[in-house]
Amino acid sequence: MKKITIILTLILSYVLPSVAQSPQKFSYQGVARDNSGNILPNQNIGLRLSIRQGTPTGTIIYRETHSVSTNQFGLFDIEAGGGTVVTGVFSSINWGAGPYFFQTEMDASGGTNYLNLGTTQLLSVPYALYAETSGSGGSTGATGPTGPVGETGATGVTGPTGVGTTGPTGPTGAGTTGPTGPTGPAGTGSSDLYNNTYVAYGTATLTLGPPQSSVYTTIPGLSQSITLTGNAKVLVSVNGNAQSLGTGASYSAYSVGILQNGSLVPSGGTAYQVLVTNDAVGQPFDNFSTQALLTLGVGTYTFSAGARYESSGVSAANVNISGGAGTPLQGSLIVQVIYQ
After folding, report:
1. What is the DSSP letter of 129?
2. Each residue of 125-146: pLDDT tens digit?
3. pTM over cut 0.70
4. Helix, strand or coil, per DSSP, at residue 95
5. Burial 222-261 (b: 16+ CB within 10 A, else e)
6. pLDDT of residue 57
7. 81: left (phi over 0), alpha (psi -120 to 50) or beta
8. What are the distances in angstroms from CA 230 to CA 134, 234, 294?
9. Alpha-carbon span 227 to 298, nearest angstrom
10. From CA 72, how far away is CA 25, in angstroms rounded?
11. Whole-angstrom Cα distance, residue 47 to residue 109?
């Protein structure tokens, strides 16, 4: 049996704040190849997806199967959470009780004789699902005590009894209203991730090529500005795809980095990739994913995804990075703010 490899892309199914409830699914995309790097176009394959809790070999809390066909490029695109359920309930997963690990198994003949393709940890992808059930602000503070009742005024003097006419009414008492009790303390609760998540999508393709560059060029559309009103943790994630333009024996090397106000973040947030082309597979696709967790104070910040070419030489070839909606190179930048 041929050894089958697969390139996976996990993309968060994001819903704008106007939507009442996040969909209980997330996108799963891949390219199937054999052990020689050849794609498997227009072929029926069987998939079994499992979510394990705690460790890569931990308890399976959800499992489902899919039957899907690749396209002419060997690509397939399904929704995790939308297959035939084997065990568990996807909508009942407590995403806050992780870590969780995503296991992929495949039968290249379209049956159920699955081959394990590996397990990877789920990082930023299910955040939109977790935000649906996370805290939405602190509870109402306790009611302050009631102020004391003011003293009762003295009873007015009764007028004398007259013959014929009624005596005058006595004056009204002059008691004062007691002071208002103090306001109860503010409640405490976790930040609402759903209301503090921002997403930008790619709008055009960036083409890079030799020679090697030291400058990161912003990928069109992958830029997002935010204003912080207090100290916060900010998680910035970048996902996308690339396509080599080389033919024959060639390669394309590039890196994608997260920029803060135009400068590369000081640690993490950079992915280095190499696309290799041979006579059998021309212009292959690749996916990239990187993220950075930052601690920031009050202010306005602009985050963007940038890319640069990383190699030179006679075999180096141009590469297309990210792209607009509806293309196989669609990229995204996600900014999540967690106030301290």
Report:
1. H
2. 454 555 555 544 445 556 767 7
3. no
4. helix
5. bbbebebeeebebbbbbbbbbbbbbeeebbbbbbbbbbbe
6. 92
7. left
8. 20, 12, 14
9. 8
10. 26
11. 10
